[in-house]
Write a structure and sequence with these properties.
Blueprint (H helix, E strand, L loop, with lengths): L6 H8 L3 E2 L4 E4 L11 H13 L8 E8 L9 E10 L3 E10 L2 E11 L23 H7 L6 H8 L4 E6 L2 H4 L7 E8 L7 H12 L6 H4 L10 E5 L1 E6 L9 E11 L2 E10 L4 E13 L6
Antiparallel strand pairs: 1-2, 2-4, 3-6, 3-10, 4-5, 5-6, 7-8, 8-11, 9-13, 10-13, 11-12, 12-13
Protein name: Acyl-CoA thioesterase II
Keywords: Hydrolase
Family: Belongs to the C/M/P thioester hydrolase family.
Length: 293
């Protein structure tokens, strides 16, 4: 991947998998990746692989994934797609991602021919306009005394994403806070218009900041050395066609944690108030050195 390319171009290149045989694909991680493959990358690349085997007139509407092993960003990821079913209205695909011959990630995705029907949706919560909020680089300067170096590196690796946090003190400063947060985000384009690419990018972004919602209530962040934090599973339902180069509001909450696990949920809204997607994720949140129950 060309590290000199524009940030959005790098993100698109990340999703441009190589063909490696019938229903087989290969993906790569950016050189600027951290110690493990970012979970949203695995979700998005697996979705791209599955989408390439599905009818083009059936956009994805849901996916359910499990993170089996931590991925190594220094070596390629091999994706194998199983064509589970092609029905009159729905298409089902199963995708396995492997490194060194071992499965690191698995996902099942469903695609649907567009239909009409009864409609209703949750209302978007009130939030200040994203333009009125500090960007991430301004927040680094504001909270520099509280942020570990790893947190600042995390921000630098996501230059393609413009993110504005409502009430950032809950994420970036010590102290207990409510188990919920509101975050505006968008990809800084240009981006193609096709729905498959926009959906894959939404899948990539849907894993970002979600587990931290379970930590803010305890006055902690994912960057603390005393914590082991990792995604265990991830579910995404796409209700309507997204545009990730427009501002989206990610409303996140964590209704429960215990037994070294935490449940988080999210709703993603378009700026005009439409509910575009729903997310659920359980993650490992383990205190290092804590005794077993």
């Amino acid at each position: 991947m060309d590290e000199a390319a524009a940030p959005s171009a790098k993100l698109l290149a990340l999703l441009d998998l190589e063909a490696a045989g019938p229903d087989r694909f290969r993906g790569y991680s950016p050189k600027s990746a951290g110690r493990q493959v970012y979970g949203g990358q695995a979700v998005a690349q697996a979705l791209v692989a599955a989408t390439r085997t599905a009818p083009p007139d059936r956009p994805v509407h849901s996916m359910h994934a499990y993170f089996v092993l931590a991925g190594d960003p220094t070596i390629p990821i091999d994706f194998a797609v199983e064509r589970v079913r092609d029905g009159k209205s729905f298409t089902t695909r199963r995708c396995h991602a492997a490194q060194r011959g071992r499965t690191i990630f698995s996902m099942e995705a469903s695609f649907q021919r567009r239909e009409g029907g009864l409609t209703h949706a949750a209302a978007m919560p009130e939030a200040p306009d994203p333009e009125s909020l500090d960007d991430l680089h301004a927040l680094i300067d504001r909270f520099h005394g509280f942020l570990p170096e790893e947190a600042e590196n995390w921000v630098k690796r996501r230059r393609a994403v413009d993110m504005r946090i409502v009430a950032p003190e809950a994420m970036l400063s010590p102290g207990r806070h409510a188990a919920g947060q509101l975050i505006w985000f968008r990809v800084q384009g240009p981006l193609p218009d096709d729905r498959a690419t926009q959906s894959a990018l939404l899948a990539y972004l849907s894993d970002m900041t979600l587990l931290n919602t379970a930590l803010v209530v305890h006055g902690k962040t994912i960057f603390e050395p005393g914590l082991q934090v990792a995604s265990l599973d991830h579910a995404l339902w796409i209700h309507d066609a997204p545009r990730v180069d427009d501002w989206l509001l990610y409303a996140q909450e964590s209704p429960w944690s215990g037994h070294a696990r935490a449940l988080t949920r999210g709703q993603i809204f378009a700026r005009d108030g439409r509910l575009l997607a729903s997310v659920a994720q359980e993650g490992l949140v383990r205190l290092r050195g804590a005794p077993e129950a």
